[in-house]
Design goal:
The protein is mostly beta strands and 247 residues long. The protein has strands at residues 11-12, 16-19, 32-41, 50-64, 69-75, 79-84, 87-92, 95-99, 105-108, 115-122, 135-138, 145-147, 150-157, 167-174, 190-196, 198-203, 206-211, 215-218, 224-229, 234-241. 0% of the residues lie in helices and 51% in strands. The strands form 3 sheets. Strands 3, 4, 5, 6, 7, 8, 9, 10 and 11 form a 9-stranded antiparallel sheet that branches. The chain has an 8-stranded antiparallel sheet with strand order 1-2-18-15-20-14-13-12, with no helix packed on it. A 3-stranded antiparallel sheet has the order 17-16-19, with no helix packed on it. The radius of gyration is 17 Å and the shape is globular. The termini are far apart. Bound molecules: (2S)-amino(carbamoylamino)ethanoic acid and manganese (II) ion.
């Protein structure tokens, strides 16, 4: 594909989208400075959440205010000092965090080039259940489970899978040739970042070659399936909305 010849793998549809890095265009986002901020998925395309990639320069900073938005973040590379409320700690590649609605948070003193993916959503309270609490962790500390019994398709659930949380952030790692076991069709929406490797993603009736750096949006009920290709494991980070009634 030659971007300068007007070619791209990017496809934006009504029910799904594939966004390849060649099309990235920066946005100025209040609170984020000295960084390239790419709003990859948003309400403007029909999604009910946002997926944002922030690549920090030296002295870069993200300081987001307390409001009705909750944020789950993942340090793909580099590192930085994360502050959520009174909790301040150094993060590195593989670190992840959750900042609940009503809580300000910031990333400062980044390693230049640090890439952080943010999933942001308007929090949906659940009657009788307390708000989810802030948390910070590292993917290496989260034990993966074989997905529906397949040891070659391993799922790491990064955030607590309890009713308080209305979003999930997971990492799925496939050995070459491993697949999603069937074409999933579900009410949950996904935002996805390919972290490593490559494969074929089926979205509705289309099939796309995907590789590290690609982003996918799947609307609710978008039929979806993946097969990992190549000689090394393929993995992706993804978001989904969870734990809330249909009506
Ligand atoms: O959690 C999920 O719905 C996951 N199995 N979907 C996906 O990987 N496309
Ligand atoms: Mn799914």
């Amino acid at each position: 594909m030659s971007p300068h010849l007007g070619q791209t793998r990017t496809h934006i549809g009504i029910r799904h989208a594939l966004i390849s890095p060649d099309g990235h265009v920066k946005s100025n986002v209040p609170g984020i400075t000295d960084a390239a901020t790419i709003i990859l998925i948003s309400e403007a395309m029909g999604a009910k959440f946002a997926q944002v990639l922030v690549t920090f320069e030296a002295d870069g900073r993200a300081a987001l205010p307390a409001n009705g938005i909750e944020t789950a973040g993942y340090f793909e590379t580099g590192g930085g000092t994360l502050t959520i409320g009174r909790n301040k700690q150094r993060c590195e590649a593989g670190s992840f965090f959750f900042s609940p609605a009503g809580q300000a948070w910031s990333i400062a003193a980044p390693v230049p080039g640090t890439r952080v993916t943010l999933f942001q959503k308007k929090f949906t309270p659940l009657a009788g259940v307390a708000m989810p609490k802030a948390m910070v962790g590292h993917a290496s500390e989260v034990i993966g489970q074989p997905f529906l019994g397949d040891p070659n398709a391993v799922l790491q659930v990064l955030l607590p899978d309890v009713p308080a949380f209305d979003l999930a952030m997971n990492i799925f790692t496939y050995q070459p040739g491993a697949t999603l076991p069937f074409v999933e069709t579900h009410i949950m929406e996904h935002g996805l970042l390919m972290l490593t490797g490559q494969g074929i993603y089926r979205l509705e009736e289309a099939r796309y070659r995907v590789t590290a750096g690609d982003v996918i949006w799947m609307a609710p009920y978008c039929p979806q399936w993946f097969v990992a290709k190549g000689r090394t494991p393929s993995s992706y980070l993804y978001y989904k909305d969870v734990n809330r009634p249909a009506l």
